[in-house]
Design brief:
Elements (H helix, E strand, L loop, with lengths): L1 H10 L2 H21 L1 H7 L5 H22 L5 H23 L1 E3 L2 E7 L4 E4 H19 L7 H20 L3 H17 L4 H24 L6 H12 L8 H13 L23 H34 L3 H25 L18 H28 L14
Antiparallel strand pairs: 1-2, 2-3
Amino acid sequence: MVGNIIENIKKGDRIIWFVLIALSVISLLAVYSSTRSLAFRQQGGNTEFYLIKHLTILGAGLLFAYLVQKVDHRYFSKVATILLGISVPLLIYTLFFGEEMNDAKRWITLPVINMSFQTSDFAKLALIMYTSRTLAVKQGVIKDFWDGFVPIMLPIAVICGLIMMENMSTALILFVTNLIIMFLGRVNMKYVFATIGLGVIMIGLVVAISYFSPSGGRYETWKNRVLDYMYADPENPSYQILHSNIAIANGGLVRLAPGKCTQCNFLPEAYSDFIFATIIEEYGLAGGAFVIFLYLLLLYRIIKIVQNSQRIFSALMALGLGMSLVIQAFINMGVAVNLLPVTGLTLPFVSMGGTSIWFNSVAIGIILSVSSYVKSTVKDTTTNTRTKQPQVELNV
């Protein structure tokens, strides 16, 4: 049993598995440290509660990645349109009837199991699959406006627009990711620039709708975050940035002090949005650099998979899913070190979470599925047992 599992894991990219497991171990240590005060406030001092809960979620995530890796990645091309069709009503439902947390409606609760999830996580996977599939199918007319560009652009505009109403940062990451996929998929550059212009218009429209809405929407939150960042007083930073800076200063260059964080008792979302500051306080800048290295290593391995892929759909899907995770990671870390305004984005596979970890694990599983196919193809090619399929040229 264990031997079969190990053999199946070896069929995928072993370095990506190493990155995933390493981030999970770091996550367990950091979440256990940073949830102590939360445990005293909400669980009567039971500090193991969140550790066990997070361990269960991470374990399920690793299982999902393993199971999805065993699925032929070409299956996702067949279901991409269906998943996209489900995403639109889910996002609309969330806007009107979703659960409000931190002044934003991003979650809905599944009946029976009583578990909430962000519909944007589901929509992100669906849109990247759909864009990759459409680009692959329409390579023959990819330079044409109506037949090639419009079928790709419309879903991107709809999905990103719906997400943007309550989650600007996630929508922007998804939009940029799809721009990268479009560029690599040989979409006419003037259409790519037109898409960027459309994105700017969408942001202005969403901000205007939020400003004039009776409830005020997310306008005040967006405005305050940008103004706090642009006009921040270095001598008097905001509460979050102040304690994040103290945590980073406490860590120094090299430190090995698991469980010794102090600012996690004061820093809001120390186990989520600002968990990178907690890691640096306990393991120093060297620990933070190692986390950065892991995400760069993940991106490097995905690029290698893309370079060896003989199918444009698998190449674009793997790169799109990987880029969305890495971009989110670097934005989260940029916020923690005060290089970017506060966004509310978590650190993938490290921040304490629930279904977001599972959706990210599914994304990694899909990438591993692609890598399994690429490895088998390369092996068959080198042994002359399989004829190499013609490769569609990408802009790489």
